[in-house]
Amino acid sequence: MTSEEEKRTSRRNFLRGKLASPPDTEAVEGASNEATSAETRPDGAYLVQLARQAMACQFEVYLNAAGPGTEAEGAVAALDLVNDLEQQLSAYRPESEICQLARTAYLGPVVVEPRLFQLLELSLQLHRDTHGAFDITAGPLTKVWGFFDREGKVPQEDDLVEAMRLVGSNQIELDSDKRTLRLAKEGVELNLGSIGKGYALDRCQEVLLDWDVEDFLIHGGTSSVLAHGERRDGARQDGWEVGVPDPLRPDRRIGTVYLKNESLGTSGAAFQAFFHQGKKYGHVLDPRSGRPSTKVLSSTVISPTAALADALATACYVMGPEETEAFLESYPNVSVLLVVEGKRRGSVETIMLGGMSERLLRV
């Protein structure tokens, strides 16, 4: 039996309850860090949930099923892929392909894995289309502001200027014929944190569809969501219901949307921030100024792919209402919800662009 056949057999036994270890044990081969549950709906339908910790958050897959079976096996295979992608994309792992590229590509062109190269091409295209609001070279800014180590601080001006010298996707050179990457100077970093989770969801979708799973919802840390097919529970049959939280009160919803064969991404800085001399500094940085963006409280994007939704949620947060509205002229298949501070203290107001007013169902 090949290693892949052994892994599938282990998954099958695990999902059918044939292993002695409980579902959430780390000892189960092929299902480490896995949690499985089934929620019974009043009409008798089941919602099967599988979860795994990866990329500093919890990835979860939801399935329509009468009980665990081959569909759940496909979900485990998808979650296996997330672990592999984290090893490739993480800026926090020195041995990852992204970190290795940053260490060597300034010396000369380096060949890049095909799917990663496509992701880099998309990232550069979005950098151009957002006029620099989306930038995968902003890692030095994240570090100088202390957010990389989750210890926020206001940087010295000289340190900020030095970090800005290394920021700018124009310092990335891609050769599509040779599939190589070259960096303009030593110290330029590649950080895919604002697009990586969405990309992982898109890749998970490919795995699930290969397993002939047609109806599922998968998310990474709830801020990146991809839905395919429908939730079959006797309610409305036009996709999966996803809540949009209030950025100031996460226990409350601004509204809900229904997703079908599309994705949603949300960006906000309300709970990843620090105070200095009475001023609040959020972790979403404007790579054009080097400073935290303050135009909106949160940005939610619906788009055809999760990578695009993930990236544009960050970009629209940075751009704010006017720039986002202009940007959407070139992206007619994208809808955006921006949440800004209301006139009354503690209240919020919503700005809906690109057809979002037709998608959002208010609470």
Automatic annotation (TrEMBL):
Superkingdom assignment: Bacteria
Molecular function terms from GO: metal ion binding; transferase activity
EC numbers, comma separated: 2.7.1.180
Names of the cofactor(s): Mg(2+); Mn(2+)
Cofactor note: Magnesium. Can also use manganese.
Keyword vocabulary terms for this entry: FAD, Flavoprotein, Magnesium, Metal-binding, Transferase
Reaction(s) catalysed by this chain's protein: L-threonyl-[protein] + FAD = FMN-L-threonyl-[protein] + AMP + H(+)
Location of the region described as Disordered in the Swiss-Prot/TrEMBL record: 1-40
Binding annotation for Mg(2+): 194, 310, 314
InterPro entries hit by this protein: ApbE (IPR024932), ApbE-like_sf (IPR003374)
Family classification: Belongs to the ApbE family.
The protein's name: FAD:protein FMN transferase
Lineage of source species: Bacteria, Pseudomonadati, Planctomycetota, Planctomycetia, Pirellulales
